[in-house]
Design a protein that fits this description.
3 helices, 2 domains, mainly alpha
Length: about 110
């Protein structure tokens, strides 16, 4: 058999009181408020459980730090790749100009 809850014990104690004083009236009001609060929590609790089952849990702070580090490393990598392509393009242009000059000199020397 289940043991009575503190709320049930309080209700029984209030019912047994013989005098109708202000203290008893306040106790009855407190019991009624407690009943209303527990009823509201019981009706709201299944709703929150369903809501948590539908959504995935959020990312932790460590995951966000890892994502931020990966983005930073990727950005630095892209910056170095862009710089390497710019240098390669400049070197290629210089080589083409030097070769063109050599070709002209060789054609004049015929």
């Amino acid at each position: 058999m289940t043991e009575p809850t503190p709320l049930a014990k309080a209700e029984a104690a209030v019912r047994e009181a013989h005098t109708d004083t202000v203290a008893v009236q306040l106790a009855l009001a407190a019991v009624e408020l407690a009943k209303a609060a527990t009823a509201q929590q019981q009706t709201a609790q299944p709703h929150t459980c369903q809501q948590h089952q539908q959504h995935k849990p959020g990312r932790s702070a460590g995951e966000w730090v890892g994502i931020a580090c990966a983005v930073c490393v990727g950005g630095v990598g892209i910056a170095f790749a862009s710089l390497a392509l710019a240098i390669l393009g400049g070197v290629a242009a210089i080589v083409v100009l030097v070769l063109r000059d050599l070709w002209r000199d060789m054609q004049k020397g015929r």
